[in-house]
Design goal:
This protein has 114 residues and is of the alpha+beta class. Strand 1 and strand 2 form a beta hairpin. Helix 2 packs parallel to helix 3. The longest helix has 18 residues. 29% of the residues are buried.
Length: 114
């Protein structure tokens, strides 16, 4: 069996830690690429996506910090509309700085608690 990449090992470590602390809360999952950034709120108990936001088709498209802030505000608004106020933040294998941190800060400003 092939060894896991550093990214995959980090993702597994973060996900394992989240499962122990989640307590039934939905998970705010973040994914970033070179061109876009995506965020979705997932209810793991039901296995469904509650809310989602991304830079795809947005006027502030791209993968910069301003785009990440707008996605953070959008996901917070979509979560409020779906009735979600408290989540756990799943950064995946990405480090918590730059675009990922900007998205998290904007989601907190938008009303999400984590």
């Amino acid at each position: 069996m092939a060894k896991l990449s550093l990214f995959e090992r980090r993702r597994q470590r973060v996900r394992t830690a989240l499962k122990s602390r989640a307590g039934g809360k939905p998970r705010l999952s973040v994914h970033r690429t070179g061109k876009h950034i995506y965020a979705q709120i997932i209810d793991d108990a039901a296995g469904k996506t509650v809310a989602a936001a991304s830079t795809l088709g947005a006027e502030n498209s791209g993968a910069n910090i301003d785009a990440a802030k707008s996605v953070g505000k959008d996901i917070a608004a979509a979560a409020k509309k779906a009735g979600v106020t408290t989540v756990v933040f799943d950064r995946g294998g990405f480090l918590f700085h730059g675009r990922v941190k900007a998205l998290a800060d904007a989601a907190r400003e938008g009303g999400l608690e984590f």
